[in-house]
């Protein structure tokens, strides 16, 4: 029984997040461009002997990109991850991971066949012990090295095309800070030149799916290092807040008594050091963030530029945003009008949905309001408020998905900014995930939000959901079949009646009224589906 239990833990605690798997961060893997590590369960690459997966060539999307990035072959993140690897594990069924050693989000068990849905809760509704456990988990993640992943400290060119690997260890929390930085950093063009209008996680359609995947991976890493498989990220509902309700020592850290830009010494977060906050320094050196410590977390909530962000978002702002029917529109960047994504991200007015980059609303408003480490995109994940803020943003995304029930085709397949098309792989995650894979209801990914649950309808909806999804995918064919069937039925009925009447005689009194061909062509058939 003990061996069985250990085997089960081996399955559920397999690596799950992104960036460079430690087992692939070496010269041999880089020169062969192959990352297909063995699964510990059977020792074969990708668990192939156990039919978990196999080593396959990466299939890159060939869909055209938008005009925002006018270069090619200058950034390691283009056609991710092909600069580093062009063969990775392709997992079967419900298996997932860089070696197919874990279960997809929403599944568990030895063979990943057990469905599960965990609930994310309001941080203010946690018990004192639950809240303290969450804070302790955050601090543990900041102080425990990642066993499975390392980060790159140089570009592929600086690594001499793989013959001089440049990687380093990093703690679990900072691994995610670094990934957020890497996805949003500027392109290094050589000399002192950079290209700033590029971001693989923001200002485009992938903003919401990318952060959804990011939080799921972060959540699973916490589950792994704490051996608490039921852990979920709490969310901070900031609608109609008059101030930062979590900015106190009971929660995410209060204000320092003598320096309003720092955290209270009574908070565990006051001792945290930030990384990846000096983007101009990295750009001038044409270097990547190496994750060295750069000082304490800075935060001065409410003392922000009021002309840019006059207040925190209101319930009315959120409701208007949810009423927008288009997920994406126009240029599909921060200039998009009437776009749900752009309005929720905060680049469009939450009362008109017209783009206004000079203002920061909804998601962006919280970052600006914090007036510190959270307010600079590349280093914003240093502040632990980041995760509870984005959990609530994700819940608004979930509300929109449930209200409008979009098909996958609603997510743009082409012409989005680089990295944001539906079939593009998300930077910098390994194992690989496509943007479209997270454009789906949260329950399909194994989690829900406490304030969105409908207990009375839950089981019935779970029963109907797969059938409704299939019907939505083939509704056009069904309607076409119904119309075609009604046409055929009408024609056959007319012919049969005509034949019967013809047999009964051809006198003028019983002769059928024939329809002229031009009138026949004007008949329309309708079907209500």
Automatic annotation (TrEMBL):
Coiled coil: none annotated. One of its GO terms (molecular function) is metal ion binding. GO terms for biological process: melanin biosynthetic process; pigmentation. Residues 1-18 form the signal peptide. The keyword Transmembrane applies. One of its GO terms (cellular component) is melanosome membrane. SUPFAM superfamilies: Di-copper centre-containing domain. It is found in: Melanosome membrane. Its cofactor is Cu(2+). It is an enzyme of class 1 (oxidoreductase). It is a single-pass type I membrane protein. PROSITE patterns: TYROSINASE_1, TYROSINASE_2. The chain crosses the membrane at residues 474-496. Residues 287-313 are annotated as: Disordered. Keywords: Copper, Glycoprotein, Melanin biosynthesis, Membrane, Metal-binding, Monooxygenase, Oxidoreductase, Signal, Transmembrane, Transmembrane helix. Its main location: membrane. Residues 202-219, 383-394 form the Tyrosinase copper-binding domain. Its EC number is 1.14.18.1. It holds the Pfam family Tyrosinase. PANTHER family: TYROSINASE (PTHR11474:SF124), TYROSINASE FAMILY MEMBER (PTHR11474). Belongs to the tyrosinase family. This is Tyrosinase. The gene is Tyr.
């Amino acid at each position: 029984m003990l061996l069985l239990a250990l085997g089960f833990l081996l399955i559920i605690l397999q690596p799950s997040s992104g960036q460079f798997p430690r087992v692939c961060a070496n010269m041999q893997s880089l020169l062969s461009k192959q990352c297909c590590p063995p699964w510990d369960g059977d020792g074969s690459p990708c668990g192939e002997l156990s039919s978990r997966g196999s080593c396959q060539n990466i299939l890159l999307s060939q869909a055209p990109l938008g005009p925002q990035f006018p270069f090619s072959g200058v950034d390691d993140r283009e056609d991710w991850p092909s600069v580093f690897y062009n063969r990775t594990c392709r997992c079967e069924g419900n298996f997932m991971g860089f070696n197919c050693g874990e279960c997809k989000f929403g599944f568990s068990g030895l063979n990943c066949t057990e469905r599960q849905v965990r609930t994310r809760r309001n941080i203010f509704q946690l018990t004192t012990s639950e809240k303290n456990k969450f804070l302790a988990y955050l601090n543990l993640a900041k102080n425990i090295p990642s066993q499975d992943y390392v980060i790159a400290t140089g570009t592929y060119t600086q690594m001499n095309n793989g013959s001089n690997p440049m990687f380093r260890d990093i703690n679990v929390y900072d691994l995610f800070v670094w990934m957020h930085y890497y996805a949003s950093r500027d392109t290094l063009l050589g000399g002192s030149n950079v290209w700033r209008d590029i971001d693989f996680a923001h200002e485009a359609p992938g903003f919401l799916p990318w952060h959804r995947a990011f939080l799921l991976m972060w959540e699973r890493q916490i589950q792994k290092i704490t051996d608490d498989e039921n852990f979920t990220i709490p969310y901070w509902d900031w609608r109609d807040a008059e101030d930062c309700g979590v900015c106190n020592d009971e929660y995410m850290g209060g204000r320092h008594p003598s320096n309003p830009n720092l955290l209270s010494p009574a908070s565990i977060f006051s001792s945290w050091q930030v990384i990846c906050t000096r983007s101009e320094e990295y750009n001038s050196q044409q270097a990547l963030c190496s994750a060295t410590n750069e000082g304490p977390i800075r935060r001065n909530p409410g003392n922000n530029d009021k002309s840019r962000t006059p207040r925190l978002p209101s319930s009315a702002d959120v409701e208007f945003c949810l009423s927008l029917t288009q997920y994406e529109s126009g240029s599909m960047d921060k200039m998009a009008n009437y776009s749900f994504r752009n309005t929720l991200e905060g680049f469009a007015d939450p009362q008109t949905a017209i783009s206004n980059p000079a203002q920061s609303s909804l998601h962006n408003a919280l970052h600006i309001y914090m007036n510190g480490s959270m307010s600079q995109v590349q280093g914003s994940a240093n502040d632990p408020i980041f995760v509870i803020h984005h959990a609530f943003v994700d819940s608004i995304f979930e509300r929109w998905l449930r209200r409008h029930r979009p098909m996958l085709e609603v997510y743009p397949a082409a012409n989005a900014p680089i990295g944001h098309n539906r079939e593009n792989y998300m930077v910098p995650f390994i194992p690989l995930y496509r943007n479209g894979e997270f454009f789906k209801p949260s329950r399909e990914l194994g989690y829900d939000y406490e304030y969105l649950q409908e207990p009375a309808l839950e089981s019935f909806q779970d029963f109907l959901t797969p059938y409704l999804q299939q019907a939505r995918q083939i509704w056009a064919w069904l309607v076409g079949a119904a119309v075609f069937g009604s046409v055929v039925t009408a024609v056959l009925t007319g012919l049969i009646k005509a034949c019967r009447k013809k047999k009964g005689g051809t006198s003028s009194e019983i002769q059928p009224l024939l329809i002229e061909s031009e009138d026949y062509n004007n008949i329309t058939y309708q079907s209500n589906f």
